[in-house]
Design goal:
Layout lengths: L12 H4 L17 E2 L16 E2 L19 E7 L7 H8 L5 H10 L2 E3 L19 E2 L4 E2 L5 E7 L7 H4 L2 H4 E4 L3 E6 L16 H10 L12 E2 L9 E6 L2 H12 L18 E5 L13 E5 L6 H7 L1
Parallel strand pairs: 1-3
Antiparallel strand pairs: 2-6, 3-7, 4-5, 4-7, 8-9, 9-11, 10-11, 12-13
Helix pairs in contact: 2-3
Length: 307
């Protein structure tokens, strides 16, 4: 499918226009394995059981390899028969080819999920506890006698653009309620299922809080719309849930016009193009989507910067 970038209005138009890259994502193969239960202590701060944070924060993103690896997801049924054992230690006991330190990095990275406490006679099957899973971001301890289902994404997908981008230079506008950001290609807007650190919301939040000691992890940015990972362009993020709801409604009601710049292998047909699609419960708006194609005259400098 074609991927587009959003064009900013007014003076920052040069910064806001970006080249579209069309890229077909390859299907990622997932490995599923339910491991046998063992005497392991583990937990999550989101569980219904009183849990303890180990305070382990020594790992960094550099622990996770930057090169692309085959997707690997491990599923564990963990029963705790003793106390004072960290989740990372418990996972290493089940998955011995992955070190405890690497599991600490995965937890901080947002690649590990844990369920609420399960009943003793609970039958663990694929997708049976999916709705109870919570992502955890710090190593924790589970009380003795508890049982949890844990899912670990051992080879999470990396988005290196997060660390290669000068984020303060990407902020086009900031108000009390919104931040307008120029999103680079190669980065999702929101956290992915196996990576909670490398995304636009997290990176912009980190850039804005530098030097502001009053900010903490409770401070959030909210997405109002999204662009695909390979797409670069303008994204509006909200500083609070109320502002996010207001802007999302403005988008749904059709009061925002989006202009796209696309790179095509052959000259595109100029005129009105209609895309028919099957309606669904998640479809926003009614009727077919239409795209008005037109030529855009660019200066040599603009063309060079886009290419």
């Amino acid at each position: 499918r074609d991927m587009f970038c959003l064009r900013a209005a007014g003076s920052p138009a040069k910064r806001a226009l970006a080249l579209l890259v069309t890229k077909r994502a390859q299907k990622r193969r997932r490995t599923f394995s339910v491991l046998s239960s063992s005497p392991i202590a583990s937990s999550s701060s989101s569980s219904s059981v009183p849990l303890k944070n180990t305070g382990t924060t020594t790992t960094t993103t550099t622990e996770i390899p930057s090169e692309k690896r085959p997707a690997r997801v491990e599923h564990c049924d963990l029963k705790s028969l003793s106390n004072n054992k960290k989740l990372s230690e418990a996972l290493h006991g089940e998955i011995t080819d992955v070190t405890e330190r690497y599991f600490q990095a995965l937890i901080e990275f947002g690649a590990v999920y844990i369920s609420d406490e399960l009943e003793e006679d609970f039958q663990l099957e694929p997708n049976t506890v999916k709705h109870k899973m919570k992502r955890i971001r710090s190593d924790v301890i589970l009380p003795a006698g508890s049982r949890h289902y844990v899912r670990a994404h051992v080879n999470p997908r990396r988005f290196l653009a997060a660390g290669e981008t000068r984020w303060m230079d990407c902020i086009l506008k900031e108000t009390d309620d919104f931040v307008v950001v120029m999103k680079p290609s190669g980065l999702p807007v929101s956290p992915s299922v196996d990576n909670a650190k490398e995304n636009v919301l997290r990176c912009v939040w980190s850039a804005l809080r530098v030097g502001n000691k009053n900010d903490d992890e409770a401070t959030k940015l909210f997405p109002t719309h999204r662009l695909d990972v390979t797409t670069s362009g303008v994204v509006v993020v909200a500083k609070n849930s109320k502002a996010a709801g207001i802007f999302s409604k403005i988008l749904r009601d059709g009061f925002v016009e989006k202009q796209y710049l696309a790179l095509t292998e052959n000259p595109a047909k100029i005129g009105l193009m209609t895309h028919e699609y099957e309606p669904s419960e998640r479809t926003i708006g009614k009727g077919a989507r239409t795209v008005k194609m037109k030529t855009l005259k660019l200066s040599e400098d603009d063309t060079a910067s886009y290419l």
